[in-house]
């Protein structure tokens, strides 16, 4: 125990040193001018680090930068990689919405001035941005299930509304769409040029940011699509659990997980001090500040290179940000260890995974419907799916994160179908719990569809360790 503590101390010290040296290299850590009531935005210094070189390990500021997912950072992508004798049969895409304005305000501070209109002369930019706006302006209400038709089809407020998608968010998904177009349409001819309505399956939650993210991706994927051929379904649940949302045991796991989170937070005295310090700056009780989830707003400042807010008592700064972000990383580690979130995830992700294997099986039988599925969703959607699949090391879903299931047919053995799983362009197929050892036994660079089906139909419940063999039983187990 003593050794462990000393080790952690050393680790913390090393992290601090790494951070300090990084700060000097990468950040404009000039003290921010302390003006009355937050000062004018012009006098503020900016805080954006420069992501040219990759700093080592789990540096909280570097992690935050990955989370922002700025479109300027080029990335490699492994989607669509398969031997020549494999034919792409269907693709199932889960996305998190792109960069958005915060959902919360830091009490008694001016909220960040971010413009949510889409304009060509602002970065980040995408060559299809104006065409996207033009096409959205022609959009028809008939293309959306109620209540989606009442939502705006692209962001348009000069001062963003709470939770609104930003230009960065639109560009992120135009890019995602174009990337998928190049691979799945141009290279693998997933859809014919005269594709029809029922070949797509489009579903989104009822927020403008998810609908608009889905539309931006779709526009990148199928530029100038025919509005008459588009139909977006509305999903009321962030778990995409449709008619199977009632699951008492899942809720019990969630309550225990929240308790774990609370206890971990109490143990972190540095975090408590930081919240106390910030509360003093904005002059509200610590409890109220914490309830306002300041990291959400701080991430927006960070991702948009806008300095943190100041009051006449001082400024919220990089050190506050670093402490809260470090705790988030620590919380994720603890979450993996305690496995309560895993229980929640296995039950929470079952309905949408079950739906997805249903779609894959129909496509494997040769049916041509729903061969491209898009679910436009949230971090609280992707995160349980990643956990349930056993992708424990996967990073928390960043803005515009994408998780993709590809279904392939082996032309040399046409009755055999295989899947590939990709997260943000990285092939994670053999990191999933249902295919971990497969590649050691098989020369095929893919996982048999049966593995995924067996996992979703049965092994997910076995993994809960409850002896249940069905979703219904696992959800209604007594005495948990
Ligand atoms: C962030 O703002 C600073 C100060 O205005 C500027 O020097 C820097 O280039 C900006 N960084 C990015 C990535 O825009
Ligand atoms: C799983 O999918 C099948 C159809 O593929 C459906 O009949 C069943 O109700 C689904 N179960 C759950 C729990 O979602």
Would you mind describing this structure in some detail?
- It is a single chain.
- With 480 residues, the chain is α/β, with parallel strands linked by helices.
- It folds into 2 domains: 72-126 and 147-241 and 342-476, Rossmann fold; 248-340, no CATH class.
- It is built from 15 helices and 10 strands.
- The strands form 2 sheets. Strands 1, 2, 3, 6, 7, 8, 9 and 10 form an 8-stranded mixed β-sheet that branches. A two-stranded antiparallel ribbon has the order 4-5.
- The radius of gyration is 23 Å and the shape is globular.
- One 2-acetamido-2-deoxy-beta-D-glucopyranose binds next to loops.
- Residues 28, 46, 48, 305 line the site of one 2-acetamido-2-deoxy-beta-D-glucopyranose (NAG).
- It is found in: Golgi apparatus membrane.
- Its main location: Golgi.
- This is 2-phosphoxylose phosphatase 1.
- One of its GO terms (cellular component) is Golgi membrane.
